[in-house]
Amino acid sequence: MLKPLLLEEEKVFKDPVHRYVHVRDQYIWDLINSAEFQRLRRIKQLGTSFFTFHGGEHSRFNHSLGVYELMRRILDTFEGRIHLTYEEKLLCLCAALLHDVGHGPFSHSFEKVFRYHHEDWTRAILLGDTQINRILRRIDEDFPKKLAEVIAKTYDNKLIVSLISSQLDADRMDYLLRDAYYTGVNYGNFEIERILRVMRPQEDGIVFKFSGMHAVEDYIMSRYQMYWQVYFHPVTRSGEVVLRKIFQRAKVLFEQGYAFHQEPLMLLPFLQDKVELADYLALDESVILFYMQMWRKEKDPILKDLCARFLDRNLYKYVEFNSRDFHLLPELKELFEKAGIDPAYYLEVDTTSDLPYDFYRAGDEEERIPIMLQMPSGDLVELSTKSEIVQAISGKRRFDYKLYFPMDKVMALPGDLSQKIRERLGVMENVGASRQDYSPD
Amino acid sequence: MLGRHAKIIRLIEIAGEVSGRKKLQKMVYIGKHLNLDFDERYEFHMYGPYSEELTLRVDELCNMGLLDEQMESKGAIHMYRYTLNDSGHEFLRFHEVDFGLGERVIKRMNEENSRFLELVSTILYFHHLPYEEMKAKIFTFKSKQRYTEEEIAKGQDFVEELKALMNKDAGTPLM
Fold first, then answer.
1. What is the complex's ipTM, to 2 decimals?
2. What is the pTM of this model?
3. Does A399 reach chain B within 8 Å, measured CB to CB?
4. Is residue A376 part of a domain?
5. Among all residues of chain A, which has the CA nearest to that of B3?
6. What is the domain extent for residue A31?
């Protein structure tokens, strides 16, 4: 039986969202101090959102500590309601702390181009030759494997899995509150204390007392608002598009044998598709930004232009794209080619399915486990059947398609060609995510 | 542009009709395991590997008027059928999607039902585990489906059959 290994004195981190993050366990303290966890300080939580909301520069380190703190509080509220062993509690706390440890720099765009999943790297960090693995094995030789299963949602205890991965879990609750705080928007807030008070553990997961439904409604509304107002903001998406194109161009140039003035040594394993764990861990956003600074001086006109755009926030503009008008795309591609603007890098449709966030849905063909309310009778009912507010937003599909392009390049074309392209795009004036447009609206 | 969407449309064109969201989810997942060029990210959910991205993409394709989605209700169970319409066929004229021998895999998968494909995709999800552990995972997570050892063996044979179809020498391509 595993015995608690406590610090002589509780440690606290000041946190703007939860006020304090409390650490009592030696293992948790050691994990926070590991090199792989400290690396998360150099990876932003919100990718390119800082282009839109300049406060949104917080890191995955802050978020991971926040999820840990919420999990700690959840476990406190479970005292006397369900018995969890010390090892099970540690599993919950470690899963909360380490669930994002496999994220890389600008991971959403980077993963798309280099085609890997950060979840696989999380697993590799937990199980591989890392400081984190050595700390976890001090708990128990099997502990890293169990933890990897909890994070991958394949652990046998569904309650433990649901605390870190469900439609109302510690991860989502922290990122909504934190992202709202740092971006400065008001609509991401909900009453976390109330939600924690009405959370009830069951064998298969967590449910919420019916009397706390309004707090859960608030959470769903904030998730909905944050989705459309922050995560899917068109300027942020424009930044993602430019970023993706930079990685895409670097990859193509490498494959063509282009001689980089500044050889991207730390990116070579990715370009060669031979990435070892140490290569992955060596990468962070400062490395990527360094190469962008170097590449903006490269000879290749596309790579240097894209890097300058990203660094100087001279992003692409956008127009609404009528998804049924897909015939427009080949026409536009042809016009762009004729104008000497390579459409592979300068024309892009971005859609909602390109986003790593989701919004609440009651569950289709039972794939998604819905949020359940516990009625005074003890019966469980799905949230949207009791809440008109949730019903109003959870059953509706909302779509958003945008076409991104560099307006400055189009405007610089000879009159006829520029006019033709702008006519096809439906824009005769400057629109969208311009250098001057710093407003998030 | 919209290349990821085109791959899903092409899968449905090859299959002719896909019955059930779950079935489509599992076909793409199994296809990915056999190196068919799909991009959707998967996580483990109640019915095995599940991709939120794919769900959204299919919704978009319906919204774009490229796929037809028909819902059939049998009691409390809803089933969605997906077929390609004229716009979908036309869309593919602008996107080159070549699954190569993977076409045979798509057709073969579509001959099976979603319950079996759910088992196969779960076997593949746990393929890195020793057989006994993989079996234990299936019995734990799929207790409601009541899969038997014989079915697991059949699922494993099916994976081998699909791998063989990806092999150039595996007989005449299916029509």
1. 0.88
2. 0.93
3. yes
4. no
5. A349
6. 11-232
